[in-house]
Amino acid sequence: MTDAIVLEMDELRALAAYAADSAAEVLPIFERAQPADSRPRDAIATARVFAAGGKRGKALRDGAWSAMRAAQETADAAASHAARAAIAACSAAYLHPLARATQVKHILGSAAYAARAAELAAGDTPEIGAGHIERAARRAPETVVAVLRRYPLAPAGGGRVGELVRMLDQRLRGAGD
Asked: Where exactly are the structural domains of the chain?
């Protein structure tokens, strides 16, 4: 028995588009804290270029690394999580075709980091994150849900972001049943 999952390029593009939309929702949180730093915005734009038919290559990797540095260089926790959502938008293009629970974060990580950024920006309010997760579930295209269902359930751990990934994972897997 093989644990390989077949992934088509159009599916990876749909994942990147979904992740970019998630990250864009909380980009203002980062930009309020770091108004002169365009790295997360640039990463989201790069993910959108890929989603629209661009090449999967160096630009995505560079965008993710730049957004990672932005996340590390800000002292604002909400802004850092918003930048991490941008990282996840670029990395969605590199979902591994192996049936591993850890891959679920490549699918849902951007939405989970965005939800956590919103929670922190609102004074660490879990209801805000839950609202973000619900909106992310409602706007998930069927392609994203179909890809997600090929993978095992999201793994335990990962702190609050991991909880948010599992919340969204459970919500999406239950959709349409």
From this structure: 9-174
